[in-house]
Amino acid sequence: MKREDNSPSRRSVVKIVVDKEYEEGLRGIEDYSHLIIVYHLHLSQFDGNLVRDFHEGVRVGVFATRTHERPNPIGISVVELLKVEGNILQVGGINAVDGTPVLDIKPYDYFDRVENIRVPGWWLKKFYQH
């Protein structure tokens, strides 16, 4: 992944550079509006804590969060595909830093869409109190 700056933000536009040898595998990807990106959280250093303070005193297990500090340093994001130029994908909506290794790219289709999801109250407070 290549970023203009190195601050992870879902609001940034990111370039995913696919190795030239896999460029043919991108054929038809431009027909999708969104993609699923699987990537290695290569800078993450898991400290072994499976339970942590997450928000305003709420203690939850690492698998109940989207934190990058995980025993398995694998990230996944649904991104908007903005542009395809050869082996370069411009996407929006990924929270990763420059140089993050991409493990896989998958099209986002109707089978992956979930409606009426449930999330805990602490999550709503943290992400929607702005």
TrEMBL record:
Q: List residues of the TsaA-like domain.
A: 1-117
Q: Which SUPFAM superfamilies match?
A: YaeB-like (SSF118196)
Q: Does the keyword tRNA-binding apply?
A: no
Q: Which Pfam families does UniProt cross-reference here?
A: TrmO_N (PF01980)
Keyword annotations of the record:
S-adenosyl-L-methionine
CDD domains from the entry? UPF0066 (cd09281)
PROSITE patterns reported for this sequence: TSAA_2 (PS51668)
* Keyword hit for DNA damage: no
Q: Which family does it belong to?
A: Belongs to the tRNA methyltransferase O family.
- Name recorded for this polypeptide: TsaA-like domain-containing protein
Cite the source lineage.
Archaea, Thermoproteota, Thermoprotei, Sulfolobales, Sulfolobaceae
